Amino acid sequence: xxxxxxxxxxxxxxxxxxxxxxxxxxxxxxxxxxxxxxxxxxxxxxxxxxxxxxxxxxxxxxxxxxxxxxxxxxxxxxxxxxxxxxxxxxxxxxxxxxxxxxxxxxxxxxxxxxxxxxxxxxxxxxxxxxxxxxxxxxxxxxxxxxxxxxxxxxxxxxxxxxxxxxxxxxxxxxxxxxxxxxxxxxxxxxxxxxxxxxxxxxxxxxxxxxxxxxxxxxxxxxxxxxxxxxxxxxxxxxxxxxxxxxxxxxxxxxxxxxxxxxxxxxxxxxxxxxxxxxxxxxxxxxxxxxxxxxxxxxxxxxxxxxxxxxxxxxxxxxxxxxxxxxxxxxxxxxxxxxxxxxxxxxxxxxxxxxxxxxxxxxxxxxxxxxxxxxxxxxxxxxxxxxxxxxxxxxxxxxxxxxxxxxxxxxxxxxxxxxxxxxxxxxxxxxxxxxxxxxxxxxxxxxxxxxxxxxxxxxxxxxxxxxxxxxxxxxxxxxxxxxxxxxxxxxxxxxxxxxxxxxxxxxxxxxxxxxxxxxxxxxxxxxxxxxxxxxxxxxxxx
Amino acid sequence: xxxxxxxxxxxxxxxxxxxxxxxxxxxxxxxxxxxxxxxxxxxxxxxxxxxxxxxxxxxxxxxxxxxxxxxxxxxxxxxxxxxxxxxxxxxxxxxxxxxxxxxxxxxxxxxxxxxxxxxxxxxxxxxxxxxxxxxxxxxxxxxxxxxxxxxxxxxxxxxxxxxxxxxxxxxxxxxxxxxxxxxxxxxxxxxxxxxxxxxxxxxxxxxxxxxxxxxxxxxxxxxxxxxxxxxxxxxxxxxxxxxxxxxxxxxxxxxxxxxxxxxxxxxxxxxxxxxxxxxxxxxxxxxxxxxxxxxxxxxxxxxxxxxxxxxxxxxxxxxxxxxxxxxxxxxxxxxxxxxxxxxxxxxxxxxxxxxxxxxxxxxxxxxxxxxxxxxxxxxxxxxxxxxxxxxxxxxxxxxxxxxxxxxxxxxxxxxxxxxxxxxxxxxxxxxxxxxxxxxxxxxxxxxxxxx
Lengths: 541, 451
Description:
The structure holds two protein chains of two kinds.
Chain A: E1 3-6, E2 9-12, H1 21-27, E3 51-57, E4 64-66, E5 71-72, E6 82-85, H2 89-104, H3 120-128, E7 144-146, E8 151-154, H4 163-170, E9 177-180, E10 187-192, E11 198-200, H5 209-213, E12 219-221, E13 234-239, E14 248-254, E15 257-263, H6 276-279, E16 295-298, E17 301-304, H7 307-319, E18 324-328, H8 334-347, E19 352-355, E20 365-366, E21 372-373, H9 381-392, E22 396-397, H10 398-408, E23 412-416, H11 426-431, E24 437-442, H12 447-451, E25 454-457, E26 466-469, E27 474-478, H13 491-498, H14 507-517, E28 533-534, H15 536-540
Parallel strand pairs in A: 1-6, 18-19, 18-23, 19-22, 23-24, 24-25
Antiparallel strand pairs in A: 1-2, 3-4, 3-5, 3-6, 7-8, 8-12, 9-10, 10-11, 13-14, 14-15, 16-17, 16-25, 20-21, 26-27, 27-28
Chain B: H1 20-25, H2 30-38, H3 41-51, H4 63-68, E1 79-84, H5 93-100, H6 102-116, E2 120-125, H7 130-146, E3 161-166, H8 176-183, E4 207-211, H9 212-224, H10 226-230, E5 233-234, E6 246-247, E7 249-256, E8 262-267, H11 272-279, E9 289-293, E10 302-303, H12 315-318, E11 328-333, H13 338-352, H14 358-375, H15 381-393, H16 405-431
Parallel strand pairs in B: 1-2, 1-4, 2-3, 7-11
Antiparallel strand pairs in B: 5-6, 7-8, 9-10, 9-11
Helix pairs in contact in B: 2-6, 2-9, 3-6, 5-6, 5-7, 6-9, 13-14, 13-16, 14-15, 14-16, 15-16
């Protein structure tokens, strides 16, 4: 096994691995500070924060020869027998110099900067900077400039790492951002006319990522700007429910209010990125129009009903209803789909299980690095389909079910919605007019909701826990990030109650059960890691 | 060297010297004919290598060796870039060649392209040279007309096209990878090396970048032979194993406070004093010399008592300078203020820093700010320590930047503070009698603007 030596510690690296100094040091538990380097972007080695001493050990004699100058770790390959020294005085001085340089013209307006608390300039200065400022050369300025609809630029906070510029060139492929001027007058900007009017704004479907990439507070997310200090927020691993890609994300909330979504690194799904549609697509979670009161029909009108009555009451009515059908939305988790399907098949072994309408929009969009935004705007079609096919031996889609309504004489139909926008109309609702018992779970009112005999407010993605299966058969599990608003019961909990199971609903236990029962999910038997598991592995076996 | 005959400048000064007619009358393009008739590319490379020709652009890298770094048997294309982005302050030897003898440059360029088997060459000329551009463009047209360029040159089967490209006036475009980036239509941000241009250069293909004077020397070497070339200049210093010797004639650009400024051809190794006395006609107005820049502002400073420094590739280094650079000697007389010199130098480099690497972008800017403050009578002794620290820490030599511009910015600071510290301190004490001893940073006065 080839070996790299970091601060005297030998690290084994794979024979075919191509690591740089930063990555090799990380293996040794040494964090080399860096601004411009990002694993998902090309190497420019321009911030010079990652300067280290580097040398070579002669494998035969064990003699180490060091290079006289410091080198940027990001650009130095960790070839076998490379020696990195990351904590010598020389390295410390170089870091202190870079930190001092970067703060020369920085406005140091941390108290009013959104990035404060998660800012690399702050962190590195604390760790590697000088104790006192030696420069007293210039009055501070703090200019702000718009770049587009999603992102704003705080010009003087910028450290010119050029990550954002490289992102628009290499990942989004749209090249809106550029560096203008030269030397210390350099700034990030978009193309403008001479009077400063924006000609080509930062306008692409991945634009929000530049804010995540920015190591300092230069790029501000307009959606998040001045809404919350980062140290008040808690971060929860989650999976984006925006489309069938299922990006790994973090939901950041304070006191059950979601303030922003951020991508979470997952090499199998989204690398480091997420699209704007997903990133800003959480408004419905706190939409005032969300339904938060369970009701049941009483003659022509609906009356409030308490959640504690619902499970026993529904159970009793469904048992007498005769032929049953359940519509499971592709927004539900695998676990929820399984529990509802299980429950319906236990009441009526012939119960029809249908998948709800699949929202689609446009066509798949693939970016240069492979990142894809899918046309299918729901996170879990594959998971729900797998559950339905296994438990009912076939797959009925929404159209089929609507067609069967007239002839099949269902005694009761349960429609689990969970859509974030309107998805049915009066015509659809009218088709249910002959069904004696219609139960609708959803987030927003709709004609079908009005038709329902039981209106059960459902959860959004941030409140659910469970697993989604994305378009490439990768199963990712997550836990809830915020508690649902009062009056909403998360679907999984209700199904758990209906099945009469003991204790609390825990998605991971249910997944263990599913993995044992349904071959498709068997890869998940031993738990699901942060980056998910590939279900195709067992399909092929 | 009273019998030294200029060769590179032989045509300069003749009437119509920039035309093909006059050039051919004095044996022009015979070297090219000789090459295309009977020499193999590798023979020329070998010739240039054995001549000991070192690049005239500033770094002094052996030219023949650079050519051999091209991957052997490469299917092509291989590109040749002629670096005519002459922007080192004080330097104008390329300009003289391009304005008064463009055909010599082109002949050298064609021979060099043949030697490296490049079939496309880019002539990267700075835009501040309108006359050179005009004459070189005309000369190129004459070459195509005469069949020295284009398809199947002189029936040899070798084809070459030369494209003119004008820079937009950035110093950094003279750095070879900066030049390549600029040529590709990008910001002239020097590239990380390796890969060196010979392996991956313009348009990601093997590329040679040579200076105008270098290719002119190539022409002379092919015409006059290695022995002639090696008879001029000085051999390697046996005490310095890394010295490859300094052979051949060199164009020295002499300017500043002397009687006869101009571009003069002299053997490498002439001393600074000789150059000033014999060619420059001594210091002007009967004054004494104070200092001289040995080879372009980025090389540092020679004090008047160091003028015996031989101006070869190895000489200025012995006196604490960076090197020979472009051999542009700028002489300063006794009335020159070193504060002004250093401010001017700092301002130039902070203006020309490409802004890619933090230490250069911020360091040069900080140095300019401090020098401006010193100039305005608000300096402190401590500023000199900070300036010296900047000088010591930025550059490719300590490893803190990608290219050598920062070294060029650092050397005048380092040299000036080392050699003229007393004068700088006196200036600071005289102009800032109450505050020169302050060591704490003075707080910045203006408040943060609120958006």
